[in-house]
TrEMBL record:
It comes from the Bacteria. InterPro entries: DUF4145. Residues 81-165 form the DUF4145 domain. This is DUF4145 domain-containing protein.
Length: 198
């Protein structure tokens, strides 16, 4: 059956092949095709096997990122870019960017000395992050380091990349977002006190 994740509606959906072209010179097994998602009715371009019995890949023409409103802009943009890479299945790029986000977060907190291991540990020592968030950051570092040093032996799969992005987001949540929420609550309380004259 022609089932894949629809790049338009995001659903795990069935597809109908409406057109099959000729394979490109770069691959004789991949036939360019136009498909329609049965779930949302959108046309989607992709590659199928000869005669269109299997989907070999759908082209994600819509990329999805993630917003981090209380994170400093340059870090938030990199984190968003990591999510956009993930959405187009560029998993190695997603992991590498997630590693950069962790390093940039340490730098933002003026932790600039030593290796990334030391920087993550220092964020914990300075009580910027809790222990499990620190451990998560180390997981991002492990996978990111392999790649930063040119070890592309093991491909990164969707699950791994998704998990790494979650761990990255948890760090941003802990260091920036949650702190900003507490500050907003304080500001609101202070404004009320001033307003009531108490
Ligand atoms: Zn769809």
């Amino acid at each position: 059956m022609l089932v894949d994740t629809c790049p338009r509606c995001g659903a795990r959906a069935q597809f109908e092949v409406v057109w099959i072209g000729k394979p490109g010179s770069w691959s004789r097994e991949r036939y360019p095709a136009a498909l329609v998602c049965i779930a949302c009715g959108s046309p989607v371009a992709g590659d199928v096997s000869e005669r269109g019995h299997h989907i070999l890949g759908l082209w994600a023409d819509r990329v999805t990122g993630k917003e981090f409103p209380d994170v400093p802009r340059h870090i938030a943009e990199t984190a968003d870019e990591a999510h956009r890479c993930h959405s187009i299945k560029a998993y190695r790029a997603a992991v590498l960017l997630a590693r950069s986000v962790i390093e940039a977060t340490a730098k933002e907190k003026e932790i600039t000395n030593g290796s990334l291991i030391k920087k993550i540990d220092e964020m914990f020592d300075r009580r910027l992050i809790r222990e499990h968030v620190k451990d998560g950051a180390h997981e991002v570092r492990h996978l990111g380091n392999d790649m930063a040093h040119g070890d592309f032996i093991d491909p990164v799969d969707a699950e791994e990349s998704g998990l790494i992005l979650t761990l990255m987001s948890e760090l941003l949540e802990e260091v920036f977002q949650s702190v900003a929420r507490v500050q907003r609550a304080r500001d609101l309380r202070a404004a009320k006190v001033t307003g009531s004259g108490a």
